[in-house]
Amino acid sequence: MTPYGKTAQTAIAAISRLAEMYDPVKRVKLNSAEIAENRKMPQPVVAKVLTILSQAGLVNGSPGPGGGYWLARNPEMVTLYDVVSLFERQEENVSCPFGPHYCGTGPHCPMHFDLLKVREQMISFLRGCSLARFVGWKPGQPATDSHSTRQLPILPMI
Which residues form a coiled coil (predicted)? Predict the structure, then answer.
């Protein structure tokens, strides 16, 4: 449900699974196959994004039998922006639906300012949403915001 490519979506799904299982005392480890099975994604893609997340310092891993991955930091310290920015270019300019040479070389297109507003809202959401939102969450539970028990609104697809 994100406006990003499949690799970024896979990374969010994988790291959110690690956040669901986060326990700073037990340090629960999950391997790429366990995460892939839980999220119903291809294991090779999950393994690839976990490697990138590990190189970025967002997750730690241990090799071999009994090895696996876990969050490198408290989920409150990792935002969705931290994850998405590894896989998607966060350009300052919004691509114009009329082509790359329309906005900026003449008058703005009819959607220019609306698209800028949507982009700013999305970046603000990603920067403000930490992985803490996933801690202890189980499938089938209603989604709630981190400050109350009210159900979150469904965001429109962009």
Answer: none
CB 18 within 8 A of CB 59: yes
Predicted TM-score (pTM) of this structure: 0.78
CATH code of the domain covering residue 96: 1.10.10.10
Please, what's the b/e burial string for 115-150 (b: 16 or more CB within 10 A of its CB; e: otherwise)? Answer: beeebeebeeebeeebbbbbbeeeeeeeeeeeeeee
Contact (Cβ atoms closer than 8 angstroms) between residue 39 and residue 14: yes
pLDDT of residue 156: 42
Which pLDDT value is given to residue 102? 77
Residue 41 domain-assigned (yes or no): yes
Q: What tokens were used for 117?
A: 């507003």
**Residue numbers of the chain with a pLDDT score lower than 50:** 146-158
| Domain housing 70 | 6-132
